[in-house]
Amino acid sequence: MNTDAQVFAIYLTAATTDHPAGYVVNNVVCDGSSTPTVSTGQAAVADPDRQYPIGSAYTVSAS
How far apart are the first and last CA of the chain? Predict the structure, then answer.
């Protein structure tokens, strides 16, 4: 088991006809040395506590 593995939530960066911006479309596990490659219109956020399952909404917080 790789203890460096990280979970990422993949979410939409803009609304589509079916889903709002922030809609989580996938969860992926990476080896800890890289971040996942995402499609155009998507972004990845580290989700070690698994707060964003597929179908949930991720909201980007302003810093």
Answer: 35
| Long-range CB contacts for residues 30-37, cutoff 8 Å, separation at least 24 | 30/5, 30/6, 31/2, 31/4, 31/5, 32/2, 32/4, 32/5, 32/6, 33/4, 35/8, 36/8, 36/10
Q: Read out DSSP for 7-50?
A: EEEEEESS--SSS-TTBEEEEEEE-SSS-----TTEEEEE-TT-
What is the rounded CA–CA span in Å between residue 43 and residue 32? 17
Give the pLDDT means over successive 10-residue stretches in the chain (63 positions): 81 95 96 86 95 94 59
Query: Residue 56 class from Cβ within 10 Å (0-12 exposed, 13-18 middle, 19+ buried)?
Result: middle
